[in-house]
Amino acid sequence: MNFFERINISFSDCVKKYHLEFLPSYLEDYYNGRLLRVKESVTLDSLEIDDIDEMGGTIILFEKDLIIENALTQSNVDYGPTVIVKGNVSAKNIAFGGACIIIKGDVTVEQTMIGIYNHGVINITGKVTAEYIISDDHCFSIYDKGSKGIFLGFQDLRYHAKDVLSGKYYDDAEENIKIDKIIEAIKKGNSIKKNGNIVSQVQKAIDKFKASKNAKLNLSNLNLTEMPEEIFQLENIKELDLSNNPLKELSLKGMQTDHLKSINLACCSLTEFPIDILNINQIESIDLSFNTISSLPEELPVLNQLKKLLLSHCNFTEFPCILYQVVNLEYLDLGFQDEETLFLIDKALQSLKVLLLSGNANINITAPQPKLYELNISHCLMDTFPIALTKSTHLTHLDMSYNHKMRWLPDEFSELKN
């Protein structure tokens, strides 16, 4: 390949002279002192990077665009050279193994782009457009959120491999992608796309919702970082499950929530109560468990239909007094808060029937709870039962287990006859 300029140069001089300050410093340990440079854009039928540098350690620098009409490959999955493209890359298919690949421009792939095994690195600053973008346990970073394609093997779980790959590229028994078959297809220029319609996980959930009678939309465990636009036009959603998605914040703007009764946001990396929920006047159940929420909004009482509120494993350090004003609240879970939590409940929650406080070390209940029938104060380091609750004559379910400091019960405890 005589289009390369061969240069012997130190790593530091190479970085400085060719403006490669973005290179990770650890690459110097593997650098063999040789730079292969291409000044102008280059167009090739195909390119196997390992044919240029079989042993690794070389820096291969394309100053402008790299255009490959068929397959661009780097087959050795254990090691390879450092490949830098300052311009754009286009190819029919791309497969990279153990090399460090840094592309500053856009990448356009007609069919498949794949990173194989965990020894290599692919770092793309620009936008990627491909039929399939696959990471096989690979360090694969794409910074442009406008990238388009079916992502497999990333945190993006919008698609499941078995739903989008042709049958011979997915092993149903092992529930794995057949990497060898995909590499073979790439080298032959074959598409791995499944015939027929490609259905995303979100669309499957929507289809299930439309076919159900309970009006529940289950979008849990899809690694969503924002609300999918596909659900904004759905009507009559009564239950919405978004649990186990790293949303960090929730925006319901544009979504039809007129019939929404229940929302599950457990394990969604939320740090604050989602304010948009305050606009859902008819909401009855909210699950915010396993988030780092530490306070509730003063406007919470506007939700006068709210009956069930789950806040276990959050970061509350004191009892949220605003709850006294949530007049129809029947079920409250505040279990397992911060170790320094001090829960003083000195007023009645007039409608409360179920109170779960397990796993909190400092609980002081000084006000009777007139409608309470279930109480869990297990694992709370309590030394006795709260006297005020002996007047909760409807109490029928009581869990005080694992309170090893509890040595006595007040005489009034005998008044709990249910």
UniProtKB/TrEMBL annotation:
InterPro entries reported in the protein's UniProt record: Leu-rich_rpt (IPR001611), LRR_dom_sf (IPR032675), LRR_domain-containing (IPR050216)
GO CC annotation terms, alphabetical: cytoplasm
UniProt keyword Repeat present: yes
Signal peptide: none
Biological source species: Providencia stuartii (strain MRSN 2154)
PANTHER family assigned: LEUCINE RICH REPEAT-CONTAINING DOMAIN PROTEIN (PTHR48051:SF46), PTHR48051
Domain of life from the UniProt record: Bacteria
Protein known as: Leucine-rich repeat-containing protein
Keywords, ordered alphabetically: Leucine-rich repeat, Repeat
One matching Pfam family: LRR_1
